[in-house]
Structures are given as structure tokens and as C-alpha cells.
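Chapter review. Work through the record for Aspartate-semialdehyde dehydrogenase before attempting the end-of-chapter questions.
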Amino acid sequence: MSDKLKVGILGATGMVGQRFIALLENHPWFEVVTVAASPRSAGKTYEEAVGDRWKMDTPMPEAVKKLIVHNVNEVEEVASTVDFVFSAVDMSKDEIKAIEDAYAKTETPVVSNNSAHRWTPDVPMVVPEINPEHMKVIEFQKKRLGTTRGFVAVKPNCSIQSYAPVLTAWKEFEPYEVVATTYQAISGAGKTFKDWPEMVGNIIPFIGGEEEKSEKEPLRIWGHIDEEKGEIVPATSPVITCQCIRVPVLNGHTAAVFVKFKKNPTKEQLIEKLESYKGVPQELELPSAPKQFIRYMEEDNRPQVTLDVDYENGMGISVGRIREDSVYDWKFVGLSHNTVRGAAGGAVLCAELLKAQGYITKK
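C-alpha cells for Aspartate-semialdehyde dehydrogenase:
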């Protein structure tokens, strides 16, 4: 019998669910034993349920092909087979909240890729290198849910990963005003070019709900726990304004960012802070943690999606073109992998952190 933690994936047939399955193949701590999806997939093997919709570059892992897909709504049954679950279900926000809470109440930790619980005050929304201490709010959440080991933890939106870590590394220079434009890949919508032919050679200057998330979610990550209320209180600075544009790229979100600082850093100081930035995942050498979280690229034409999106197996952030600006103080370009660091990989790293902190254990 394996001593790995037994994992279930909710929404296993969708693009993010598939990414979880690809990333967890041969994981040293976690083993996928249960896959769950909508009632129409239930009862089929995973291979049959996905059919010709496998969207990863790597083949479907043999270990999951013959797993029988559970109905995700049969909460008790799914929960009884696993130590914890990853959630990538495709439902309305209210339905996602309800089903994630239902799993948590079976004493099954839920690590979610969804946005439904990102603003629930006692649910931690974590980038493990930035705010690992926010996991402590789980103790307050467990009191609310009436659980001893069940809880929900979430990772933030994919679009902020290409600039929020950069601004975090520069915190001591006190950034106070930020303008960001993100150029977002189509896999962020769960699509490929085969599914979305109208994106070929096209740009769409609107992604529903994305700009609000991009402006507000970094502030929650930079917030603090109010011990009396038992909730996360968002930071109030820097002020961020954002535009989010869908571009004809499969994987990789790029951000063009302008920053004003209260202090006056040099370019050398900005680069040094990026390259030396480390967090708890690097200190603990968590299995999915990039050795170097953020790298700076000197070339004028980098970072590029085709060359750089898979940096550190898609878990690292690439930054280039730090330049003084005529209106703002400094500007830069950032790149992150939206379905690895920005989605499933970020959630896997959160689960590794939760295991290291003692929140996820064997049932």
C-alpha cells in the first residue's frame, strides 16, 4: 500500500482537471486515486469520459485511464476514498461554493482552482512564496464549518501571477500606483485553437470579470489576518488598474506593467530583489517549487511565450525590459504559465505547503 496521500480531482475531465492529472503523475507525495466529474461522465472510465478532448502535450497517464469517473455531486462517496481533493469544477459560483463546503464538511480538505471562495473572509487565497502565513486563517474557518480537518483553500487568478510576485519582491521600495495590461492565453478560457478557431490571428479586448480580479486579488494576498474577526483583511496599497486582453497564444499570460514608487530604487536594485526573492517553498524545497521563483532576462526581446513559458517547469516567473518611464517611475514585462503556475501547478504547490504545515494529513 502506498504511503502517498490519496487525492481526488473534482472536475477531472476539463482542461484544468487534465493539467492536475498530468502534473500529479509520479508526484512524490500525492497519488490520484479518484476522479469525479459531471453526471454525464459518471460510470465511464476516465479515458472514455475524456475521449478526444485530452488537451495536454503529454499522453494521458496510464494510471488514470481505467479509473471509473464518479459523479462529483455524490460528495460522501467521493470523499470516503481520498485524503483530500483538488477542485476544478465547472459550475456557477454559488454551486461551487456549496459543493466545496460540502466536501470540507466531510472532513476532506479542498484545494481549489476556482474563484468562488476567493473572497470568503476565512478562506486563505495563497501564492505560497508570498503569503504562506495566511493558511493560519483555516483554524477560524474550521470553527465556522464545524470541522476538525476539513477546510477550503484557494489559489488566486492566473492573470496576477506575472506581476504580483514582482511587486512583492519590490515591497521595500513601496510601490503605490500600478498600471497593468495582461495579454492572456486562450487556455485560460479552457480552450485550444481547435475549440476556438476565431482566436487565430485575433485579439479580443475583453475577458469577463478578469480586470476586477486582476486589480483586487493582489491586495488580498498582501493583506493580514485579523485575529479578532478571524478573517483576512486586504491591503489598501498599491492601487492597481488593469486591462485584460485575450491574445492568440495557447499557454502563457504576459503583463506590461508601469509602477510608481515612494522610494527611488535603481535598476540594479530592482533586478537584485527579483533574482534573490525566495519564499517558504524554496526554503522547504517543496516538490513543485521552482528553485528560482523569478528570473530577470537582459535581452530586449525577452521574455517570449514560445521560449520562456516553461521556465522552471512552468512554475517560475520571467521578467524583462525593466526601464525608467517618462510618466511612471519604472516599467517591466512579466510572463507566467497560466495553467501551471497560474492554475493547477499553483494549487499543487499550495497542497504541498498545506502538507508541510500539517493541515493535510492521512485520514
